[in-house]
Amino acid sequence: MSWGFLRDLLSGVNKYSTGIGRIWVAVVFIFRLLVYIVVAENIWKYEHDEFECNVKQPGCENVCFDHFFPVSHIRLWALQLIMVSTPSLLVVFHVAYRENRAKHHNQKLYRSPGEIDGGLLCTYLISLVLKTGFEIVFLFLFYKLYDGFKVPRLVQCDVRPCPSTVDCYISKPTEKMIFLYFLVATSGLCIVLNLSELSYLIFKYSIKCYLKRYVEKHQ
Asked: Which residues form a coiled coil (predicted)?
């Protein structure tokens, strides 16, 4: 599939982000999207063809592969990339709404349509909460679906139509496990960045509101 739309989305969001948000965009683009496209996709490309069991019973390999890999690592990773990036569309849409509203009234309604304040601040905070939530949900899915963050060399399968308990071998397990750890590490880093940006914005605008009320009170 083409990842151009996701690249364009991240580039657009970068214009309206804080400093921490720009670091998040860089991490997603360089350490997740590019790694996925350039390296990881090729490692899992023939995972089904290279999955081998020590019996030739028709259908046995297929059901065993489906049993141990209900969703491919690489497809789940792709879905995770899409889901954690799309909440940023809320910010882009809100800025576009501001620009269209100002154009419709033919006057400058905002100091800057991309400035994070008022309604755009709420939209930005919601997008951060959604991105953090998606990251945590997908890490939980990876852990539950594959019984932890590991790729075993050998799995034993007794699912019908296999005649008995058979040994099945996964291709390139060490390499896949390294990239799985890399995925978990980058997801954890993105969660930390999202929570840091969320705390920073809440603290910044809480202080701003407090100072504004203090000045108004003493005037």
From this structure: none
Span 24-44, pLDDT tens digits: 888 888 888 888 888 887 888
Residue 157 — φ and ψ, nearest 5°?
-125, 135
Task: DSSP letter for 28, please.
Answer: I
Give ∠ CA 194-195-197 in degrees, rounded to 5. 65
Domain 3-217 CATH (choose: 3.10.20.740, 3.40.50.2000, 1.20.1440.80, 2.10.109.10): 1.20.1440.80
Q: How many helices (H) does the chain have, and how many strands (E)? A: 9, 3
Residue 143's nearest CA partner among 180, 186, 99 is 180
pLDDT at residue number 216: 72
pLDDT beyond 70 at 108: no
pTM, two decimal places: 0.82
Residue 132 has pLDDT above 90, yes or no: yes
Q: Provide φ and ψ at 15, rounded to 5°.
A: -70, -25
